[in-house]
TrEMBL record:
InterPro entries in alphabetical order: EGF, EGF-like_Ca-bd_dom, EGF-type_Asp/Asn_hydroxyl_site, EGF_Ca-bd_CS, Growth_fac_rcpt_cys_sf, Nephronectin_domain, NOTCH1_EGF-like
Keyword set includes Hydrolase: no
Native organism: Machaerirhynchus nigripectus
Keywords, in A-Z order: Calcium, Cell adhesion, Developmental protein, Differentiation, Disulfide bond, EGF-like domain, Extracellular matrix, Repeat, Secreted, Signal
Primary location recorded for the protein, binned into one broad class: secreted
Designated gene of the protein: Egfl6_0
Protein name per its UniProtKB record: EGFL6 protein
Amino acid sequence: ATCGHGCKYGECMGPNKCKCFPGFTGKTCNQDLNECGLKPRPCEHRCMNTHGSYKCYCLNGYMLMPDGTCASSRTCAMVNCQYGCEEVKGQVQCLCPSGGLQLGPNGRTCIDIDECSTGKAVCSYNRRCVNTFGSFYCKCQLGYELKYTRGRYNCVDVNECVTNTHRCNLHAECLNTQGSFQCKCKQGYRGSGFDCA
């Protein structure tokens, strides 16, 4: 089976037919499935969609159970957690619905961890890290675009000279480089390449 357009988060099952991994959807399995919008709803109280998955959390005064349901808890109600709580050995702790969130100084609300600045995020050399609330994703570096080549998705250099997105002077030549471009004044002209006289 060959899928000319590729299957980003899935596998090729037949001519241009993708079978998506759980949590992904679309013809090429390139879109995140918002499980929180599914019927029946996957969470009893509240749901937070994440890349390829989701997290359940409970209203204040309820405790998240291992099966994703919420159980009423007087102790949780007293602590006043933003995203519900759990009881460990009689101790009440507030929860955060994602590994990209951490408990704030008050021990009740969750604050975002910037994985990009803390170095927790690992993106390949031609991708840059973009922080989101509770998570992050890797995006192609400036001057590169996501393309399906040789059976996989890669960040490929944009040839600004061909796409005409360069700002070279009318009397200059455009030279494509990896991730960028250069401008060189034509013979008989002098300048930076952006300005030629």
